[in-house]
Amino acid sequence: MYNYKLLIQYDGGRYKGWQRLGNGENTIQGKIEYVLSELIGEPTEIIGCSRTDAGVHALTQVANFKTSKEFSGNDIMKYLNHYLPQDISVIEVATVSEDFHARYHAKEKTYLYRIWNREYTNPFMRKYSMHIEDKLDITLMEEAASYFIGAHDFTAYTNAKTKKKSMVREIYSIKIHEEEGFINIRIRGNAFLYNMVRRMVGTLIEVGLGKCEPNEIPKIIEAKQRNQTGDMAQACGLYLENIQY
Amino acid sequence: MYNYKLLIQYDGGRYKGWQRLGNGENTIQGKIEYVLSELIGEPTEIIGCSRTDAGVHALTQVANFKTSKEFSGNDIMKYLNHYLPQDISVIEVATVSEDFHARYHAKEKTYLYRIWNREYTNPFMRKYSMHIEDKLDITLMEEAASYFIGAHDFTAYTNAKTKKKSMVREIYSIKIHEEEGFINIRIRGNAFLYNMVRRMVGTLIEVGLGKCEPNEIPKIIEAKQRNQTGDMAQACGLYLENIQY
Predict the structure, then answer these.
(1) I need a labelling partner for A43 at 20 to 30 A (CA). Which of A23, A60, B110, B188 fits?
(2) Separation of alpha carbons A112 and B139, rounded Å
(3) A89 has a chain B CB within 8 A of its CB
(4) Do residue A121 and residue B91 have CB atoms under 8 angstroms apart?
(5) In angstroms, rounded to a whole number, what is the distance separating the alpha carbons of residues B129 and B233?
(6) Which residues form a coiled coil (chains A, B) (predicted)?
């Protein structure tokens, strides 16, 4: 069997997320598998590293698929980019060893959250960032972010449907960077629960607006209650940015 | 009379350009005048510096309007941004002397043209740049651009409908900058004819693709024939970037 690794970029705006759902549901995995199966000549499944949520974007999603047929990476890339919609792009294709698994082998992921923090909207980024009119206090947000670092049970930061053996995830770093009206929040961790990044950013926004004290975060995490994290930040501001193997 | 100067930003994607047309036509001037007239309490006309074409964007459009009523700049800005669609933003309002005229007093304009020059599309910039798959030769384009500098009769670089007393315009500089897959072309001049920037960029693209020699440009300009400039570059890659007074 040949195993191909794909780097994929997408504007998640009009999709119901990465993961294939039923027939005819508009998902990124579904779109790619449809075109890929045409190329391979038989139904072909693709394994994505992260099941990004409806409306969430990817600067780099990693995926892999196996087939008994040999193709050049360039031919796969050209075919997919020719037939995929313009909001999904395959930016790299590599042949990898047969045991490579895009999800199981991921060691570290980075998510980027973009906030547009001016009074007026940004006409060009209105679908690619969350607009918050009131000035956010970055210093408070950085203090709050420091409480997320390390391994914690993040039950409070996921939704009620999530059932995993362990709710412990480790956050390696959170960097908040202000740049020409944007506040970019980069969260790096070993793995993330469903909705976890958007709920963490939701709390950081509450802190930045002065509605929550930074030192309340350890209490929210410890309480493991899902209704204390503030509103979940909008999907359109979130990007899967990078995956380390 | 009070005279207010506005700096305006817009995503021109879904508009028929800046200039107000008949009733119900979707134009940027029309949208702003509608909301502004509500604020002022009487029909109020706004003068824009540049009549950007259908689909063309503005990072900074300058406009002004006069009224006998006094408002704070901040109140005007808040009202407009509250009622305007999200793809039009007023980013600054200033009170100016009664003789200021956004169009007549402009001394210099800068247009930015963005080309995405990779094989695959850019999912996030597909509506904000022109996609050219084949690699462009920047050195040739820079050589070609140098022939546009100076005062020339740009009849060849406008469309047949354009009737102006003089077709002479002066180009001060053209800078071509490559950056992470984008080729950004900045054209600075005293004024521009209808479609002139997109036709100039069209020629630069032909040169970059090797379909036209740089030294053919003086001949194209001199011939004053409109069918020799190559295809007009797409509207979605063009931004009115800056206006000097």
Answers:
(1) A60
(2) 35
(3) yes
(4) no
(5) 10
(6) none
B123 touches A: beta carbon within 8 Å = yes
Q: Which residues of B touch A91 (CB under 8 A)?
A: 120
| Conformational region of residue A104, where left means phi above 0, alpha means psi within -120 to 50, and beta covers everything else | alpha
**A residues 39-58 closer than 8 Å to B (CB):** 57
Asked if the Cβ–Cβ distance from B123 to A90 is below 8 Å, we say no
* A85-94, A154-163, A196-205, B207-216: least confident range: A154-163
Across the interface, whether the CB atoms of B123 and A89 are under 8 A apart is answered: yes
Residues of the binding site of A for substrate: 111
B23 pLDDT higher than 80: no
The pLDDT tens digits for A166-197 are 999 999 999 999 999 999 999 999 999 999 99
3-state secondary structure chain B: CEEEEEEEEECHHHCCCCCCCCCCCCCHHHHHHHHHHHHHCCCCCCEECCCCCCCCEEEEEEEEEEECCCCCHHHHHHHHHHHCCCCEEEEEEEEECCCCCCCCCCCEEEEEEEEECCCCCCCCCCCCCEECCCCCCHHHHHHHHHCCCEEEECHHHCCCCCCCCCCEEEEEEEEEEEECCEEEEEEEECCCCCCHHHHHHHHHHHHHCCCCCHHHHHHHHHHCCCCCCCCCCCHHHEEEEEEEC
Instruction: Check B91 against A120: CB less than 8 A apart.
Output: yes
Residue A153 annotated among the catalytic residues of the structure = no
ipTM of the complex as predicted? 0.91
Domains, chain B, ordered by start: 2-96 (3.30.70.580), 108-244 (3.30.70.660)
Judging contacts by C-beta atoms under 8 Å, the chain B residues touching residue A57 are: 123-124
- Rounded to whole angstroms, the Cα distance separating A55 from A209 reads 25
pLDDT in tens, A3-29: 999 999 999 999 999 999 877 789 999
